[in-house]
Amino acid sequence: RKEVEQDPGPFNVPEGATVAFNCTYSNSASQSFFWYRQDCRKEPKLLMSVYSSGNEDGRFTAQLNRASQYISLLIRDSKLSDSATYLCVVKFGIGNEKLTFGTGTRLTIIP
Amino acid sequence: NAGVTQTPKFQVLKTGQSMTLQCAQDMNHNSMYWYRQDPGMGLRLIYYSASEGTTDKGEVPNGYNVSRLNKREFSLRLESAAPSQTSVYFCAGRQDFYGYTFGSGTRLTVV
Lengths: 111, 111
Fold this sequence. Notes:
heterodimer, A: mainly beta, six-stranded mixed beta sheet, five-stranded antiparallel beta sheet, B: mainly beta, seven-stranded mixed beta sheet, four-stranded antiparallel beta sheet, 11 strands
């Protein structure tokens, strides 16, 4: 089983719709969680951290469920500019420097 | 602010050739990382350096060496390139708790 698993998609969603992605992780000792965004042929960029209580940044909402070991990303009122690959990222363990990346979920927003 | 700068952006090598990928950051990061990204595999850690003067193996270190020349620079060397090393290589610096800042990547093709 992969340490971090995501549905690869692609998700093709009409503009203005709401879309949600889930990501599961295998290590219950995981400490920190992030969503990164990667545009085609570009580097990954931090979209948002995921906090235990859940957090929101504009149209984006991230949730963490430690009991079921998954995190989610909800995008409301999707824009054409949201088209990208979304990477689920987990940091395992205290003091562990390394991040582990999921393979990404590809999202295309259709006009 | 340049952030994390990688050179070259593109490279084609013949099997058996050697080369060094350069990475420099001006964000005062202590930790630096080299990842490779392949289709369907996500980002996989090759080597990392938690601080100046230290380096450690990641998930896929075979065929690579690294050098943390100083706090700013972290280079990745392929001593004898193989077609299996065709990939996109990303350098990153750790942005404290909030994840990484990535360079723009090096697209390497080994023929």
